Amino acid sequence: MGTLSVPTLLLHLLFIMRRTCALQDSIRQVNTEFARTLYQKLTEGEEYRNIVISPVGVTVALELLQLGAKGNTFTQLENALGYTVNDSQVQHVLRSMYGDLTNSTHTPAVQLACGLFVDSSIQLSPRFSEDTTVWLNGSLQRVNFSNPNETAALINKWVGTKSRGEMKDFMSRPTASPSLTQIAVISSMYFKSTWQNPFSLSETQHLPFTKADGSVIKVPMMYQILAVNYGQIKTGGNQRFIVIELGYLEHAVSMLIIIPSERKKPISSVEPHITAHTLSTWTNIMRRMKIEVFLPKFKVQNTFNLKTVLTTLGITDLFSPTKADFSGISEQEKLFVSEAIQEAKIEVTEDGTEAAAATAMVLLKRSRALAFKADRPFFFLLRQANTGRIIFMGRVMDPLE
């Protein structure tokens, strides 16, 4: 076989790079649509509650299961995700995306972990065991589901270790019958912010925040004047929103904060517009501007049983004792998933750490700069800067909740 000439080799490499970029963009789009649908399903009937979910935490769990799924179980996972992890090029793109996200040199502390807890009586396929241990931040744990208290303790210890002690008592005990439990999928995601431009503790004051029901509370409101990406958005349906983007150190992650322009418009008017297309459009519309930013300190933590919501997304077979096909995990056992749980937590403070002491109240500086005031319910999402992939998304209805 002849050696490729330099121009031919460069063209070949350029083709590979373009295909990789196109594939990465395609994965980002399907991930965003999956995130949107997941968010809509999880927030149904929760109009007044603070919410945070980690779509990437759910997709990594489904990708892990896809490694051992066969038949219609595999097809349902492929349809929901929009891709197959058995494709080597998809694997390459995903490894790159997750690697950038959890790189320990980045200042934002992103802790993503996905654990597959399998009953110790199950004989696993050597291939699956190997794939699991090298897949992203996956972890294969053998447990004894016949002892639910012991299993819950092991899962809590695992989650605590992966979250650096930030998540405790993740699971009181498995919810399914111990005699039926064979596999539990646990996805844990934690993020603690470190701003590119920290807010000054001395500028934080207790200011009014108007809740969805019209009541007004006083909340710790951070403040600073800085240059941010800012946009006033008008949709085809004449909806108007204000969007700002705040960056974190090393520019690895950024936070978008969105509020309706009209104070009386509910935050629910924003949420249906969160699509891959609109996010791309809004990002292009935004301009760098120096503005006043008023943002409440907040901490949101949610735990979701994903079983119900994934079923509504067409992922049904893997939860069925009679239909699930995980012969790629074990050929000797008829396996199905009995638990699928995610816990997500986000904490936003002045500089990324909890304030150790109270500071004196001071008057805010007056400025002619444009002001962005998150003094009413707002929607937020954290995105990976280089891919646009959504790490967290949620809303704050009450910063004191």
From TrEMBL:
Cellular component aspect of the GO annotation: extracellular space
Annotated Pfam families: Serpin
Domain of life the protein comes from: Eukaryota
Record domain Serpin: where: 36-399
Signal sequence extent: 1-22
Gene3D superfamilies: Alpha-1-antitrypsin, domain 1, Antithrombin, subunit I, domain 2
Protein family: Belongs to the serpin family.
Protein known as: Serpin domain-containing protein
Organism: Scyliorhinus torazame
